[in-house]
Design a protein that fits this description.
alpha/beta, 11 helices, 18% strand, globular
């Protein structure tokens, strides 16, 4: 990132951390809720995390870092925001686990050579102005046979693009959702690369928030609200939509209309 962009990202996320109570952070829901589609899928791919050296890039408030630590991983959290990392450490302390931290923008950071078995990043790539530099750092940081897992929003869905324009006060202006053309970076750098898309018909839950619940996107982050949904209350209509998505999103051009993409692989 340009230095001014780094500063804006850091300040934005510092303010976010300062305005968040530890009691408001969903650790288990972020990986186990019926709406946590991407992380539930990633967990299946990861398998046993006992004693795995795991780097969480763009760790934010620390939900993922703490969850992985509770699963037995030795976690290092990276973020551009010092206040986010403070929150991450405090959240770990609350849950009885220790989190190591690395402060700095991921694309400019040297994570070392062959330091980690797993690299994970949630909603971090679309904040980066140089994904290739970031992923070169990931390749260096992984041990031979190490694996990476990222998920981020895609650029194509018109409803999501309207949502992003409406939610202009709860995101930074430098965000750039991913395009399929950027997958070439991963194929050039890694010997194994896969991707899968999530959220199409299941995005009806966003329409519910806006049209029925009358929640403005600047009032509450929808992508955080979904993790507080009661599976008993919404499962009867939400789960069938997930099944439909599982079929449609394996077929072009429907996958271009997905909200999020999971990219994983190894070196």
């Amino acid at each position: 990132m340009h230095p001014s962009s780094d500063l804006k990202e850091r300040d934005f996320h510092d303010r976010w951390a300062d305005g968040t109570l530890l009691s408001e952070i969903n650790v288990f829901e972020a990986f186990e809720c019926i709406t946590a589609q991407e992380n539930r899928f990633i967990l299946q791919l990861m398998g046993n995390l006992k004693d795995a050296r795991l780097l969480d890039i763009g760790a934010g408030l620390g939900e993922s870092s703490v969850y992985f630590a509770l699963k037995g991983a030795r976690v290092t959290a990276n973020d551009i925001s010092p206040r986010m990392l403070d929150c991450c450490v405090a959240l770990g302390r609350k849950h009885g686990v220790q989190i190591s931290t690395l402060l700095g923008a991921a694309e400019n950071f040297n994570f070392g050579d062959s330091q980690f078995d797993i690299v994970y990043g949630a909603n971090v790539l679309h904040h980066s102005s140089d994904i290739e530099a970031l992923m070169r750092g990931v390749r260096r940081a992984l041990v031979p046979g190490g694996r990476f897992f990222f998920y981020d929003p895609l650029a194509y869905n018109p409803a999501i693009n309207v949502y992003r324009r409406l939610a202009n006060k709860v995101r930074t202006e430098d965000e750039r959702p991913l395009r399929f053309s950027q997958l070439r970076i991963f194929y050039e750098l890694f010997t194994e690369v896969h991707h899968r898309e999530f959220w199409l018909t299941s995005l009806l839950i966003f329409f519910k928030y806006f049209l029925i619940d009358r929640i403005h996107p600047n009032t509450e982050r929808y992508w955080k609200r979904i993790l507080r949904e009661d599976p008993q209350r919404i499962g009867w209509w939400f789960q069938p939509l997930v099944y439909i998505d599982n079929v449609l999103l394996r077929l072009p051009p429907f996958n271009y209309l997905a909200w999020n993409i999971v990219i994983w692989g190894g070196k």
